[in-house]
Amino acid sequence: MKLASLKNGRRDGALHVVDRTLTRAVPVPAYPTLQAALDDWAQAEPVLADISAKLNGGQWAGIAFDPAACLSPLPRAFQWADGSAYVNHVALVRKARGAELPASFWTDPLMYQGGSDAFLAPHDPIPLKDPQWGCDFEAEIAVVTDDVALGSDVSVAATRIRLLMLVNDVSLRGLIPDELAKGFGFFQSKPASSFSPVAVTPDELDAAWDGKRLAGALRSTLNGQLFGCPDAATDMTFDFPTLIAHAAKTRALGAGTIIGSGTVSNRGPDGGPGTWVDEGGRGYSCIAERRMVEQIATGKAVTPFLAKGDRVRIEMLDAKGASIFGAIEQVAQ
Amino acid sequence: MKLASLKNGRRDGALHVVDRTLTRAVPVPAYPTLQAALDDWAQAEPVLADISAKLNGGQWAGIAFDPAACLSPLPRAFQWADGSAYVNHVALVRKARGAELPASFWTDPLMYQGGSDAFLAPHDPIPLKDPQWGCDFEAEIAVVTDDVALGSDVSVAATRIRLLMLVNDVSLRGLIPDELAKGFGFFQSKPASSFSPVAVTPDELDAAWDGKRLAGALRSTLNGQLFGCPDAATDMTFDFPTLIAHAAKTRALGAGTIIGSGTVSNRGPDGGPGTWVDEGGRGYSCIAERRMVEQIATGKAVTPFLAKGDRVRIEMLDAKGASIFGAIEQVAQ
To answer: Is the pTM of this model over 0.95?
Structure first.
């Protein structure tokens, strides 16, 4: 099933079941918010599945579904932990600044704790406060977990994934170097993220989801031009169960925890950096990656970060060309 | 007023108003959870204040208050951001490993985003999974904010503080060096924290709270022996409004955001490291700080980290010797 949180003037929005084609939606009186459903998933799932069956079967008409009326599926969450599973992306960052990639990066996931108190809605503007901050988008996949016990291994972690969605992990590139140099990780450099209008259960994804990775091109466009379409199952060094087990190594994870993949990134055909879409490549899921490739190739990054009025769209289509999660569509302003 | 979340089998507990002496408590039907009250603080505050007046005035008897029946005041929160406001503590860490303290550390706060999806209760055991992880306590002060707009300055931030409480920011010292070396900050090295049984509004603190810092000895005991009693208003380089404004520089903060002070730490009389309680000093708010002082003085840290059965107690007493927040009291196991 597909789930959305519609704006209703409250912080957590109103949980709705959305049909497969993203055209109709029905509220869920028994579980007014998605967090309430996740808090009690074993009870909630059959209730939601029943509504979904009636909506998709045409028994219930529902209301017209409008992605612009959506908050992020979890408008706020108790945990948002973002991995960096596409080590190719990390390797590029390092290469662009002439630093070695530690060998451990291929075996030990990077993960940071992100702010989760007030996510942007999928069609909210991206606030641009200071152009020097170098605002960027990052297209990612995320999963939402049920409770995960402290010390759960990868096989247990795999059984705790309840939902998938897309993310725009907004990043302020100009603030990152000084912040990371302080040693405490990201904080000011990672402002509010946004998520796709709809979160979906794994069974909606058919063969695209193998229980570990989501296959499919993650399409990012900037001002209507394709910027990247890497396959999310390719070059994902750490799959989602591995990321969840990493997060749960020293603490239990509460239901509704969001675990992100990090910027989706594919290597080029020669195993090196991916190539630009105009050159037949799969492009990039963030401006920084394109800039790094420019830096490596020519010694100079030229693609600018987001400016006022720039429009970012992030979406994944199924085999028939239909939008799975709805589109994140945000204007920088 | 003083507020607690009593265990009721639900994730967020049941909000109660507690009397000043921490002996009686009354539930709050209009706001079943503390987060619900914080979400609507302007409406909730007079309701809570009325209950508090009746309870403290003897009009309402309430039920007996048992700190052991408490969850943390926010059993889970949408944001937990912990500063490192006592730069003396950071300077000691650096000195113990022979590293320079960057000058910017005196003007630019350190802050990390902590996990907030499932806090320990104030009397919960501290899970010890692997002795090599070097489990430590950290006694801190925290404030809970209302909504804080993106870019709020220090003077605005000061008006958004709603509650204060104590924290045990449990830390796994053995995991910190490798984790920080990866560059993404703390994650596995910061498992679930716990908070004092009661959170209090600033007006309960009288002159001890000047709107920026909380004066008073933060008492930590380990197995019944005093380990530290530094004054929380002394040597606090960054006050709470400064920490909040730092957190809000690039993002709005949602109501119920918890901002921590970092380990409370006082310098010695000579301006150097604080001295041990047996030597007449104010001691330390974590084992690591004592170990750093040992390292600096003798070349060898000898005080062990927490072992099974060790009992940590963190508390602050008022001028008359009464417990303000109730005690965090946890056994490592």
So the answer is: yes
Burial label, A266 (beta-carbon count in 10 A; 0-12, 13-18, 19+):
buried
- Closest CB to B185: pick one of A76, A78, A112: A112
Over range A192-216, report the average pLDDT: 97
**Type of residue at A23:** T
- Nearest chain A CA: its distance from B233 CA (Å): 24
Comparing alpha-carbon positions, the chain B residue that sits nearest to A251 is: B191
- Which chain B residues are Cβ-neighbours of A105 within 8 angstroms? 182
If you measure CA to CA, which chain B residue comes closest to A106? Answer: B182
The whole-angstrom separation of Cα B267 and Cα B272 is 6
CB contact under 8 A, A84 and B184: yes
Q: What pLDDT, on a 0 to 100 scale, did the predictor assign at position B94?
A: 80
Q: Do A250 and B117 touch (CB under 8 A)?
A: no
- Decide if A85 contacts A271 (C-beta within 8 A): no
CB contact set of A8 (below 8 Å; sequence gap of 6+): A14
Nearest CA to A318 among A144, A198, A212, A168? A198
Residue B42 in tokens: 């302007």
Assess contact for A218 and A261: CB atoms under 8 A: no
| A96-136 pLDDT tens trace | 777 788 888 999 999 999 999 999 999 999 999 999 999 99
C-alpha to C-alpha distances, B122 to B168, B169, B197, nearest whole angstrom: 9, 11, 6
- Maximum Cα–Cα distance for chain A, whole Å? 61
- ipTM strictly over 0.95? yes
Interface touch B79/A117, C-beta < 8 Å: yes
Question: Cβ–Cβ contacts within 10 Å for residue B240, how many?
Answer: 28
Name the token pair of A2.
């597909």
What is the rounded distance in angstroms from the CA atom of residue A58 to the CA atom of residue B34? 41
Q: How far is CA A301 from CA A275, A282, A290, A293, A298, in A?
A: 15, 19, 8, 8, 8
The letter for the amino acid at A97 is R
Token pair 């289509």 in the structure block, residue: A317
Contact B185 A184 (CB under 8 A): yes
- Chain B CB contacts of A194 under 8 Å are none
Query: Which of A84, A87, A117, A180 is the best substitution to test chain B (most B C-beta atoms within 10 A)?
Result: A117
Q: Which residue of B has its CA nearest to A177?
A: B183
Which residues from B are below 8 Å from A256, CB to CB? 117
The secondary structure of residue A276, as a DSSP letter, is P
Q: How many CB pairs under 8 A join A and B?
A: 134
Burial category of A268 from C-beta neighbours within 10 Å (exposed 0-12, middle 13-18, buried 19 and up)? middle
- Find the closest chain A residue to B39 by CA distance: A11
Q: B78 to chain A nearest CA, in Å? A: 5
pLDDT tens digit sequence for B90-113: 888 788 777 788 888 999 999 999
Strands B135-136 and B111-114 turn out to be unpaired
